[in-house]
Write a structure and sequence with these properties.
Layout (H helix, E strand, L loop, with lengths): L5 E10 L4 E10 L4 E10 L4 H13 L4 E7 L11 H8 L3 E5 L7 H7 L2 H12 L5 E5 L2 E8 L3 H10 L9 H22 L2
Parallel strand pairs: 1-4, 4-5
Antiparallel strand pairs: 1-2, 2-3, 5-7, 6-7
Helix pairs in contact: 1-2, 3-4
Amino acid sequence: MKAGVRALGVAFSGDNADARLVTCAAVVRADRVVDGLILDARQTANGAATAAVRALLNQADRPDAAHVLLAGVAPPWFDVLDLDAVHDAAGRPVVAVSFEASTGLADALDREFTGDARTARRSRYDTLPPRQRVETGKTTLFFHALGCSDDEAARVVRGHTPAGQGRPEPLRVARLCARAAHAVDTVDADNR
């Protein structure tokens, strides 16, 4: 992959206890140069994560980022992303990357939620494209891809994952930023 190829990585920080979700988008080149950061903070709710990603994509206005990488499909408290809505907003391929082997979220969603909350989450989860695996050196990652072939998605994940690291650089940077912003937001809330 050419050094200047950019991807926009999106990661989340938050939990159900404080009812806040911080989302960060990081534009990072394949040669690991960070080229931009954008934050979104909002109250958590069913669908808040999808709305946050769409807002970041609109705010970022980075058509030079060839792909959007998402840190998983179920940010804090199983707020399953609507990948079709994210793909529509992105206007480019979207690859949701996860970092652990899993039998899926269906049982957890059925166990943790009832009524409309369960129905909404299961509806989004059940429409995800098939989960694929990709080897990145010594690490196995998993992904759902929209707007590109599985082969292209695997190439993008490999191309943005430095040797010896367990996640693509755009997602690593976005995760660090989201966690730091969430920590600051939590401290500020405690001091109010």
